[in-house]
Amino acid sequence: MDYQLSPLEVKMQQDLAAFCRTEIAPRAKMLDSSSRPGVCTYMKENLKMLFRGGCLEAGHIGDVIDLIAVYLAGEEIAKACPATFLSARASTFLCAGALRLFGAPDQKQRYIPDLMKAELVGAFAYSEEQAGSDMAAITTVAHKDGKTWRLNGDKNIVINAPIADVFLVLAYSEKDAGAESGMSIFICDKGAEGSRIGEPVETMGLRGVPLAGISMNDCVAAGILGDTPGKGYEQVTRILTMGKVGIAALCVGIGTACTEISVKHAKERKAFGKPIGLYQDVGFRLADMFTINDLGRMLALRAAWAINTGEFEADILAASAKLFASEAVTKIANWGMQIFAGHGYVAGSDIERFYRDAKFGEICEGASEIQRSLIARSELDKFLQR
Amino acid sequence: MDFSLSQEQRMFRETVYRYGRDEIAPLCEEADLKGEFSFEIWRKLASFGILGLPLPEEFGGSAANILTCCLAGEALGHAGVDGGSLLAWGAHTYLCAHNIYAFGTEDQKRKYVPKLASGDWIGCMGLTEPGAGSDAASLSTTAVKKGDRYVLNGSKTFITNAPVADVMVVFANVNKARKHEGITAFIIEKGTPGLTTGKPFHKMGCKCSSTSEIFLADCEVPEENILGGEGKGWFIALSGVEWDRCTLLSPMLGAAINNLESCARYANERHQFGRPIRNFQAIQHRIADMKVFVEAVRLAVYRVASAKDNGQMLNPLQAAVSKVYAGDRGFDMASEAVQIFGGYGFMHEYPVERNFRDSKLAAIGGGTSDIMRMIVSRIMMM
Question: The complex's ipTM?
Fold first, then answer.
């Protein structure tokens, strides 16, 4: 047992932190307040900057994904700009990562190098208006037209859709076979015949993320991920389980940023002759912010390690990390806002942006209610008398 | 990073768990109801070698590292051994016996440690006073040198094991002008003239540990009973904190696992409205929260333990996180366990009731949750 990061991991994290602090963080406010077309331009630039700063390849080696490194890099990007993290993650982890784990050799060769250099932007389209955690309820279907697969259906909110060059799309390739063996992930190139990207969607937080729906009307797919149909459910479940560590990175990154600026404010802002952080109401709140953020990070690293090593219950640990870190960060942002008070409530303050960004964690990729159900079922089943 | 346990560690944990479950846990309900220290449980812990776990073999111990000690604490709590008996063990082994081993002279070690390791003698540590809790530097017990002896005067309170202790490590100030630099630890044996203990307190939880005041009235202690040297008491007291934040919390982790398992079993078996209550989301979500708590508190406790085993300085932030989370969230989760059991949970015969009462101590003993927040906020504001 060793709870320490290796010197190499520490060095990598410090280097990425320094890069993100000077290059990415200063652009976060601009991304948040830009028009939708502006967001697309700036985010593409940010992804290229991340590549040049060495942030994108961390943890991605050959056919293997080292989730601890992915987590550490992710936390630093998210701390600097949560929206940039989410966009980069959709491209290099959800899209390129799925290709890395499940793609056929020619698919890997065609997309992964360019995705990792941000020459291409990737997107991962699985949820629909009536299908989130209830993945079996998707209505997008694919049928074979000669040698070509054609897709029909709508994906209502897809991260990176307005800027993406390649999409992974979850659809039924054989509806009658049921979710677990009737789904496939299709690869679709930008501008494919029959595809249409919708108007950019506006959101409460993470406004720097380019977001839109996709409509597919006999849309021509470039192929099936891994070339074998029927594996979509397994693939999407696996990548999204790993992805929970990424959402934890998003949350802990935002939590760290909130805590840091709150401490700074609590030192600088004086009331009745002393810094407000020396009052217990503020100081103890800072302690609570530190505590739950620190535990969120530990749970995320624990889950990352469990997935890396194929440990029993890795999926439950990932769900626990996502659940804990996302609920922690909404508390942290809320307390941070309380510490900044009027200074935080004005539009354009950093804590106001983080406050809006923070809520995403509890909602995305399996809301807290779903994570709890998953964790509870696993625990209860251990003690079921059959 | 490596979060795994070795095969040997897993087997050790399993062995301790089985022993605790089969040999000790069945005694705990009655002992807790009596609200007294149980010599029967004590002998069970002793005969299994638990009491000398971290002490070297030449002194009758097992030379276990801290992680192993935490595994034992977790396993016994998991097995359903009550928090009081495990607190008595912790105060005895870590705060008394290990302090004498770590800071004692060769003579002191030979005289006390083997008998403490075997459990023939019971040990305690007296730091807290009626007017000095977390503000331990302000303690008012004095020790005045008189020839080759020290005369101690003052009183201690909330001292775990005091009513049953044969050996006490007691802190007194030899020179109040020097404040914490005057604090000195003394080894005092039962029966020393001027030493008396109060009636055991009636406590809310952890009832099988016996707790009382210690009174020192012109209590004369030979100078060779100074532990670690004059003025070294403050350092000794602080070093106890490192044990406190991992080994003494590990039984709380174990109790949380015990609660989680008993709740999962109960939720599967208990039917209402024609279905097992596991089907209700309100029950499920409590179970999930308990599971997340177990995983998080385990990480917090073992992180402190693994750092100490690696010879690193105690990280005060990590120690405080461990304590405040185990204390505050642990109490909330223990309360949810009672809630799952409903009316049965309110009854003494269900361990969730005892675990609930015992769990409150983690937010109080060894520095309250408020003190932990104070420590963290001071570091953050530096």
Answer: 0.96
Does A272 touch chain B if contact means CB atoms closer than 8 Å?
Answer: no
Active site residue A76: no
Q: Which domains, from first to last, does chain A contain?
A: 7-120 (1.10.540.10), 123-230 (2.40.110.10), 234-382 (1.20.140.10)
For the record, the structure tokens of B379 come out as 């570091």
Token reading at A20: 């993100």
Chain A's closest residue to B322, CA to CA, is: A291
Paired tokens of B330: 């642990």
pTM: 0.97
Ranges of each domain in chain B: 7-118, 123-231, 245-381
**Cβ neighbours around B343 below 10 Å, total:** 7
The residue type of A69 is A
Could you report the average pLDDT of every consecutive run of 10 residues in chain A (386 residues)?
Answer: 92 98 98 96 98 96 94 98 98 98 98 98 95 93 96 96 98 96 98 96 96 97 97 97 98 98 98 97 98 98 98 97 98 98 96 98 96 98 87
CA proximity to A96, closest of A243, A296, A307, A264: A243
Q: What are phi and psi of A284, to 5 degrees?
A: -70, -35
The CATH H-level (homologous superfamily) assignment of domain B123-231 is: Butyryl-CoA Dehydrogenase, subunit A, domain 2 (2.40.110.10)
A298 CA to chain B: closest CA distance, Å?
Answer: 7
